[in-house]
Amino acid sequence: MGRIRGWPATITEPDLLEAPVVLRPVRVSDARTWREIRVRNASWLRPWEPSNPETPLHRSSIGPYVGMVRTMRHEARQGQALPWVVTYGGQFAGQLTVGSIVWGSSRSGQIGYWIDEAYAGRGITPTALAMAVDHCFRVVGIHRLEASIRPENTASRRVVEKLGFREEGTRVRQLHINGAWRDHICYAITAEEVPTGMLPRWRSSLSHSSRSGA
Length: 214
Hints:
Elements: E1 11-12, E2 21-25, H1 31-40, H2 42-45, H3 63-77, E3 82-88, E4 91-102, E5 108-115, H4 124-140, E6 144-149, H5 154-162, E7 166-177, E8 180-190, H6 198-212
Parallel strand pairs: 5-6
Antiparallel strand pairs: 1-2, 2-3, 3-4, 4-5, 6-8, 7-8
Helix pairs in contact: 4-6
C-alpha cells in the first residue's frame, strides 16, 4: 500500500472562530512541548498506556518523541497510520492516532488517543475523535474503526460511548499496560453507522443537551 489518500491532512473544526479543535500531523518540532506535557501528565496517563520502553513517561529526554515521530511518519508513508496532534486554541492538547491500518478486504484501523489533563472535560477529545472518524470514512476510505479501552478507564469509555461506538466485548489480557497484561473492552463503528458524518451527530447531541438543560 502506498501513501494514504487524504494524508498528510490538517483538519479544523468547522464554523468556529474561537479556540477550535484542530488535528494536524505530528512534527519533530513538537518535541519539547511533548516532553513537558508527558512529564507533567505522567500519573494521569501511565495507568492507561502500553508499557513501552521506547516512550517512558517519566524521562525528560526528547529522544523518545523524535523516535516515535520517525516511526509514525514511516507508517504513514506506508499507508499504515494517521498520526495527529490535537490542538485547542493553537495549543498542543494531546494526540490522536489511527494505527494498525489494514487494507484489502478489511479496510480497518485502531484508534488511540490521549489528552493533557489541563484540557480534560472540555469536549475536546470527542470532537477530535469525531473529526478523525469522518476523515477516515469519507476521505481515506477506511470502513471500520476500533478502540480498545481498559474497563477501568471510564473517562475514555465515555468518549466513545457519546459518539455511538458499539461495545463488542472484552479482549482478555490484550495489551501490556503499566507493567501487566490487561483486559480491554473493544468498541467499534463502521461507515454505514454514520452516513451523514459523526461530527454533525456529535454537535447535534450537544445542542440537544444544551436545550434540554442536561
